[in-house]
Protein 1
Amino acid sequence: MMDPTRESAPLPFITPDLPGLGGEIKSEPGHFVVEELPLYEPGGQGDHLYVRLTREGWTTRRLTRALAELFGLREVDVGCAGQKDKQARATQTVSLLLPGLDEKEAAARIEAALPVEVLSARRHGNKLRTGHLLGNRFTVLVVRPSDDALGRAEAVHAALAERGLPNYYGLQRFGVDGDNAGRGREALVKGGPRQRWLRRFLLSAFQSRLFNAWLAERIQRDWFGRLLDGDLAKKTDTGGLFLVEDAGVEAPRFEAGAITYTGPIYGTKMRWPDGLPGELERAILEAEGVTRDMLARARLEGSRRAARIQPDGLRVSPDPQGLLFEFSLPKGAYATTVLREFMKVEPALPEDDDG
């Protein structure tokens, strides 16, 4: 079994039989373009101002802190649906608790003070919260790939359409030094740090590492491409969870992409699978030396995460500098997970000094 306590344990590819195209991503922000796909549009009334903007070279956290300071707000009064990479050209929506302030005036103040382009500003009745998005659309340029990169990419593309993609958490989840998950385990076992946001962030990184370890083990056992009796499956259209009592009966829906099995985001309210899937999930947690009492003390509720996904609308085309990839992913999925399968290398992470 893969050791979940290893900070940088290599994750298996789902197309190890096909050569990678190599290359680099994120050489500059314009080579990695991400556009948030909103779950809903602002209604036009309410105390919260939904500002859709494009920025480069800033983390989402740095952006929300700067907006709070600009308008004299508490950080809790600024909302966002998800975190976006620093080394990217990112379009996303943030919400600001600004009752009474004119939308155009707010947009002008933001553009005058911050290096962003405001695309729209419209009112809504509630704060934008984490997860309030459908997904993200990506346009990524891979520079300096191998000479036969297009042929290699087409072969991997065809294989992914048949096999599906492991929904790993990306390396950026674990920090430039890769130690966020280890610090999260320490916070779980020993307590701290004092900053609530940092504690939540580190604990989440630890949960993510355990999910990756579970998914890697499932691949190594040759369980990735099939359902098992006892799996907890998710309907890909509605998100509804159900227990797989007869994997043979559900196999056609699984093969058609209508359902996928899910993996553990460990916590006190997480639903556990039965049979062999349940045994594996318990073994992963036990190997880490973590108990359910620890999860309860840390107030980790837990959830389930889809294990197998398909990039939507995936296109690969030649570019003067390399290969251009275009695709969309559901919320919570990582573009770097898609690209590593094609490149067969781990995309390098830029230094992040925003804290």
Note: DSSP finds nine helices and 14 strands in the chain.
Protein 2
Amino acid sequence: MDASDWLGLQATHNRHRWYLPVTEGIATRGRFLFGGCGLGAAVAALEATTGRPLVWATAQYLSYAMIDDVVDLDVSVPVAGHATTQARLVAHVGERDILTVNAALGSKDHPAKGQYVEFPDLPGPLECAQRPPREEDERSIMTRLDMRLAKGRQWDELEGHPVTDGRSALWVRLPNADGSALAMSASALAILGDYVPFGISQSQGIWWPSNSLDNTIRIVSLAETEWVLVDVRVEGVSGGFGHGTVYLWSESGDLLATASQSALLRSQRH
């Protein structure tokens, strides 16, 4: 199984159009499409349509797709060069746009290579406590992910005490139906890049419901790994918005990708 199968993304007779039924397994506890799954499906559609691997993609979230909605994903390719394809995708339910994505795809042989950010010194996944869904009877994407809390607090430990460094981290594993880990891909990494909202609550020491406004994923390496370290670094929270960056690491310390987001904080009443 690849990320497309995991998400439920379906092809059509038109290689530029795809569709995604919104199910509980790719939705939030609020019953709308999880932003990372929306971007993950877009990345898979873009790669399959262009035949090239993703370099970066940026999504703007415009509206909600609810459980039982069917999202159409339409790909356009304004420029296809020798090494790089510039592409766009619009995901919509009927006439209502859900998200738009701009992306660059491509690859080339080149000797330049380097990794210049430091792998965090944190316990490995099997040394960390599991992070369960917030509600015992929850039916959402969170019940499909194997999550271990590497740096941060569990739900019942968020008692209003902010942290000083804005840092938190989770080990996350995307399991197949047979229990094996999903193969590494840009689409899988896009799913895991949507964790700045988690980091905002961790940084504030209180659970704040929030909605992602955007997400940009930049692929560095697709090194194979069973677990991905989701290393969240919140840069600032002010005026009802939070901003942060996610570094995605393999178990052996390879930087797989970075993601950056802004999120709208909502009242706890909602």
Note: Helices lie at 3-7, 35-50, 186-192, 196-204.
Protein 3
Amino acid sequence: MTLTSTQSPLAILGGTPTVPDTAVKHWPPIDDTDRKMVLDSLNGGKHAFGPNSQAFQEEMAAWNGNKYGIFTNSGTAALHMGLVGCGVGAGDHVLVTGYSWSSSATCIIHHNAIPIFVDIDFDTINMDIDKIEAAITSKTKAIVAVHLHGLALNMDKLMAIANKYNLKVIEDACQSHGALYKGRKVGTMGHCAALSFNQNKSLCAGESGMFLTDDEEICAGAASLWSFGETRTPLESRDYHAYALGWMYRGNDLTAAFGRSQLRKLDGYLEAERSNAAVLRAELQDITGLILPTEPEGHSHTYYNFSIRIDMQAIGWTGDPVRMRDAIVKAVQAEGSWCCVWQRFILPSMTVFQAKNAYGKGSPWAEHDALDIDYNPANFPVAQRHSDTHFAVIMPLRAPNGPDVAKLTGQGIRKVFENISKIDPDQILDSK
């Protein structure tokens, strides 16, 4: 007799895991094309900003539909470059979502500007656009528009507000390569954009990123920050004179060679993510207690992160949601279903913002009369609810994994939720 998932003991309680150890394959897939391009770069003798670096920024801009691309050493650098290219300076206010990776907000204080947080919309996990206007101040200069987890913001509504208040929009598309809004790729609708190519991204080059824009003036400002504050890039005849505050944000040729090779496969990777996500969704669709990702009309989700929320009321839990979520995650992981808690903290609760002391002596808040800005986490209840109840499925949806792995992953999650009454957070989290 075959045991049903309800009858079969949970793996964390001594049962057999649902997903075999070897089922989920590593990301990204590496083949002979990758090896050849990287070795050719290694043997080529130009290991700083070289010919692959130049080619990568041109190819990435063309793939995304932008006029200009600048190859950087990280998505964080590209975000900082966007702020500078858009004219954000010391003391300016910049709106940003209350829930994202820390770089979405710390890039603002990199240039001594002041982050102003906006709560999220629970369904999309993106910034709640209906709350933007209430957050705008007389000092607001720009919006960091984060397309989180592979889902684009509603850019029509966002750009209407930005245009009304004469604000620049820096698209943080670091997690959303290829995500569409009304048929347009993210990174083509604001004034400029940032992409990331680190280990976990849908295009992995190990580390690095890309700054994108269609505006020549914005591009020039970003390029100056990118290369020591100089006005001439490494592709031109440099005078090595610093005309403004600058960093060294350039990417190297070896990394660019890897990125170029992976870019040739990116469309296929994105197709696999969407296809595998559809299989996972079908497996989880009718499970009590799960809130699955949404894809609003006019949007095309890439499912960089298949973010699941737990409906604590539906599963009958009235205690600490974080402890129950963490216990469930451990149980799912024990089944072999790869999952994680992606970001445990909402951004306003992070110490750098609570202390308002990024550079010492209260900088940049103290010198810009911004110490009274309220970062009380209680002002961002939707972001907090999401942060406390979510878990993420990422790697099982990535190539070379196929629908079989997505289905197995879903079966492991289903097994845990069909045995949810057996999940005791104290037993699971506090046991040695």
Note: The chain has 14 helices and 13 strands.
Protein 4
Amino acid sequence: MENNKIFSKVFMWMFIGLLVTFLTGYIVSINDTMIYNIFSKGTYFLLVILELVLVIVLSARIHKMQTTTARILFILYSFVTGLTFGSIFVVYSITSIMLVFIIAAVLFGIFALIGNFTKLDLTKIGTILLMLLLGVVICTIVNMFLNNSMFDLVVSCISIAIFLGFVAYDIQKIKKLSLEIEDENKLAIIGALELYLDFINIFLDLLRVFGDRD
């Protein structure tokens, strides 16, 4: 399968997912009723649980799904994520969000190129990145009780480095999967989901570090 062709589809679906997420988040942020219903009635936690369920189902079952089903679930996941994204448009200035988005896109692009052109086999770093990510998750949970801003800053910086590593790793992973999966449309959704998750986490961590609050 030609890499340029598959990556054009991967990035197209990734862009669609990001567009759905950010557009939904912005619409939520300018609607006081939606903001209240999502963040004042416990709905937010239900949405977070739904996000986790959707991403687990997609990651675990996408190889066995019909392509149309995978696309629908990917868009649904992007939409649900957008509902929780409404808070960032309330907390941070739109200028700050746009600037951080550009920074995230540039960093994402650099590491995507590294993953595409490097001759090194990045397979081995996948396990290391997962272990580091688990450590970040544990530290984040601990800091929910400590509420230490400096600790949160350090964890966010480490998380940025981890997900940038994941970008390069996932790009190389998609190239290898293109040799195993004949259905390029399904592979496009698989790749788009992986890279979407990488970008979203890079963006959120950068926003925590550099974002200007309203």
Note: Residues 3-210 form one domain.
